[in-house]
Amino acid sequence: SIALQYALDYPEEVKGLALMTVAMRPKDLKPELFANRLRAAEDPATHEGWINTMREVMQHIDPAFRDELLGWHRKVGPRSQHDDLMAMEQFDVRERIGALKPRLLLINGTADDNVYFAHALKLAAAMGQSGRPVELVPLVDQTHMVSAPNAASAVSLRMAAHFRRHLHGPPCSP
Description:
Blueprint: H1 2-9, E1 16-20, H2 31-42, H3 44-57, H4 63-76, H5 78-90, E2 103-109, H6 117-129, E3 134-139, H7 149-166
Parallel strand pairs: 1-2, 2-3
Helix pairs in contact: 2-3, 2-5
């Protein structure tokens, strides 16, 4: 969302844009998501439940890196995540999306249960309706966390090719 906002605010500075799992409007999250983070900030048992949820969400991440991330979650706390969610719920660029100048590569897992694939389809459709180019890459059966190594590699190569093509660099090779 930050990169999309920046590209809209400073179009002369952005030549190419690759976005993964992003929406152009609020996701209409359930109030319970917000309330749970506030409870976790105050109640130790709820906090541990929140940490366990974060561990489950990161189940496909390398265990050592996951432990490091969980350490940061413990340090920063659920209030930070609450505030991030609140900011994301206020993000809405539907009225401006047609003005997006850079070439857009849009990547989203078809099984994403956080930023639904439908959000990517709506963003791509809005770009198409305004005559702006967009390349949509559906990651079949991938969730919000791209866990399949071959899918993660394919995403990296696709992004590199996108930027080379639109920033006039040499061709990308695997």
